[in-house]
Amino acid sequence: MFSMSPRELKRMLKKMGIDIEEYSDVDRVEIFLKNKKLVVTNPQVVAFKTGGQVAFQISGVVREEEVSAQPSPQQPVAEEVKIPEEDIRFVMEQTGASYEEARKALVNSKGDIIQAILAIKSSKG
């Protein structure tokens, strides 16, 4: 197997249309999965950029952590949708739905009256 210096490798990849960027100031990398988090400490991070895509190579010490039920500061907290009473009444009139059904449909559609009406009508068949 032949050896190639990092500089030669960069030059060869550049000719193939792949740019390489090394990140030297990375302290840690966190990858969030549905029920756990992977934490890479003291990582070496390299980005390969080609055709509008970026692929990362990350190496270092990896450990798994459980994800708490509480949202972390980086995760957005869902805003409560404020539904005007007149919108609820309008959806009720148009669909014959109860107050709670109309309100729920409006909340699910983030206040979009048309979507709420369509959702109620499609659920009633």
Automatic annotation (TrEMBL):
One of its GO terms (molecular function) is RNA binding. GO terms for biological process: protein transport. InterPro entries: NAC-like_UBA, NAC_A/B_dom_sf, NAC_arc, Nas_poly-pep-assoc_cplx_dom, UBA-like_sf. Keywords: Protein transport, RNA-binding, Transport. Residues 3-71 form the NAC-A/B domain. Transmembrane segments: none annotated. Pfam families: NAC, UBA_HYPK. Contacts the emerging nascent chain on the ribosome. Belongs to the NAC-alpha family. Homodimer. Interacts with the ribosome. Binds ribosomal RNA. This is Nascent polypeptide-associated complex protein.
